[in-house]
Amino acid sequence: MSIDTETARRVAKLARIKVEDDALPALAQEFNDILGFIEQLNEVDVEGIEPMTSVTPMRLKRRKDGVTDGNQQDKILANAPDAREGFFAVPKVVE
């Protein structure tokens, strides 16, 4: 697959990136280089290879997934400009 300057212009517009006309050929070449590298990666045979999280075989650390309230209500409300009955108090905006 080859990217021309018109396609590079469309991609830049879709990404909402302003690219000057004189920079479009270089951008198209960068896209082509990236696609070439992806084609190289597609040639690698990965059949039977386990996914890895690290280069060393290790299990990810796990913790008990327990729901808590954080027990920090007083610390959090200390920053509030106005707190009442354990909640943030905000001005009324709808009448």
Overall 3D form: flat
Give a count of the beta strands, DSSP E runs of length 2 or more. Answer: 2
Elements, N to C (H/E): HHHEE
Largest sheet: 2 strands, antiparallel
Helix content: 25-40%
- Tally the helices: what do you get? 3
The rounded Rg comes to 27 Å
- The N- and C-terminal alpha carbons lie at a distance of 60 Å
Given helix and strand content, the structural type is mainly alpha
- Strand percentage: under 5%
Q: What is the mean pLDDT?
A: 89
Contiguous uncertain segments of 5+ residues: none
**Order of strands across the widest beta sheet?**
1-2
Organism: Thalassococcus halodurans
Keywords: ATP-binding, Ligase, Nucleotide-binding, Protein biosynthesis, Transferase
Family: Belongs to the GatC family.
GO molecular function: asparaginyl-tRNA synthase (glutamine-hydrolyzing) activity; ATP binding; glutaminyl-tRNA synthase (glutamine-hydrolyzing) activity; transferase activity
Fill in the keyword field for this structure.
3 helices, ATP-binding, two-stranded antiparallel ribbon, 95 residues, mainly alpha
List the SSEs and their pairings.
Layout (H helix, E strand, L loop, with lengths): L4 H10 L9 H19 L30 H5 L5 E2 L2 E2 L7
Antiparallel strand pairs: 1-2
Helix pairs in contact: 1-2
Quick summary of this structure?
The protein has 95 residues and is mainly alpha-helical.
Could you characterize what this model shows?
The protein is mainly alpha-helical and 95 residues long. It contains three helices and two strands, in the order H-H-H-E-E. The protein has a two-stranded antiparallel sheet. A hairpin with a 2-residue loop joins strand 1 (83-84) and strand 2 (87-88). Helix 1 crosses helix 2. It is flat, with a radius of gyration of 27 Å.
